[in-house]
Amino acid sequence: MTTTLPAENETRARTVPALPLYAAHVRALVVETLRVPIAVIGTLAFPALSLLFFVVPNRAVADDPVFATAAVASLAVFAVMVSSLFNLGLTVAEAREKPWNPYLRSLPLPAAVRISAQLTSTAMLSFLSLVPVLIVGALATEAIVSVLGLIAGLAVLALTSIPFLLLGAAIGYAFSSKAAIAVIQVGMFGFAFGGGLFFPPQFFPEWLETLSRFFPSRHARELTLAAVEGTTPELWMLVGALAWTLATAALALWLYRRDEGRRYR
Questions:
Q1: 4-28 pLDDT, tens per residue?
Q2: pLDDT tens digit sequence for 97-139
Q3: How far apart are alpha carbons 199 and 75 in whole angstroms?
Q4: 94-100: long-range contacts at Cβ-Cβ below 8 A with a sequence spacing of 24 or more?
Q5: Predicted local confidence at residue 121, as pLDDT
Q6: Nearest-angstrom CA–CA distance, 29 and 167
Q7: Other CB atoms closer than 10 Å to residue 121's CB: what's the count?
Q8: Secondary structure of the chain in HEC code, one letter for each residue
Q9: In 3D, which of 78, 73, 64, 248 has the Cα closest to residue 163?
Q10: Does position 63 have pLDDT exceeding 70, yes or no?
Q11: Considering Cα of 230, then 236, then 239, then 245, what sign does the dihedral take?
Q12: d(C-alpha 226, C-alpha 166), whole Å
């Protein structure tokens, strides 16, 4: 029996329409996730519960439009970050441990189609987790945002979530599923606290405020809040977000190729 390696599929893959395959992969991945409702419910509930338990009872924050808007924006970033890291990181790690994944790699399908479909399906579920956060913020706090500000904030949040998606993919290709859980949990809370998602950065000590400027969560928070409020972001926010995007893309690509080489040598 002749085994077809992924590298030998590139010529054949050019003859396969990529868009229908991409759409089919996205649909299959979303359906697969929805078949485990508790996973979806947990992703949807956790950030909204954080807002409900830690922000809403603090009326000094919830009743102040400026503080409340910043808190809702911060937990919106947290919702997308958690979903991106957990959903994509664990999905990739678990898929690598199943025989189905090597079979998929042997098919005449460009790797870019498969990977972009994973990123897209995770991003869709990540933004679904924003709905409860926005509902709680609208009903239980004095957060205010214009329609234009909301659209701009969501667009910026989509762009600044890319490093979290790529980092989740990198973790999935680097670790087993059991190890990935621990790495994601440590990274998630480190980014959340260090990036000012749970505690406003303006109240940080000077050393922590400086350190947090290197965190992707801080970049996402500040850029999203700037878009919501209609203010001009500072240069370090833009440079930091771009640097993390490029670095995580390079890391994820390298780990993917390393994993493929290990499995097909």
A1: 444 444 444 444 557 788 888 888 8
A2: 877 777 777 777 777 787 888 888 888 888 888 889 999 999 9
A3: 11
A4: 94/177, 95/172, 96/172, 96/173, 96/259, 97/176, 97/177
A5: 85
A6: 19
A7: 22
A8: CCCCCHHHHHHHHCCCCHHHHHHHHHHHHHHHHHCCHHHHHHHHHHHHHHHHHHCCCCHHHHCCHHHHHHHHHHHHHHHHHHHHHHHHHHHHHHHHCCCHHHHHHCCCCCHHHHHHHHHHHHHHHHHHCHHHHHHHHHHHCCCCCCHHHHHHHHHHHHHHCHHHHHHHHHHHHHCCHHHHHHHHHHHHHHHHHHCCCCCCHHHCCHHHHHHHCCCHHHHHHHHHHHHHHCCCCCHHHHHHHHHHHHHHHHHHHHHHHHHHHHHHC
A9: 248
A10: yes
A11: negative
A12: 24
Using the structure block, give the residue that is written with the tokens 């040598």. Answer: 265
User: Quick one: tokens of 262?
Assistant: 């290990």
Q: Residue type at 209?
A: E
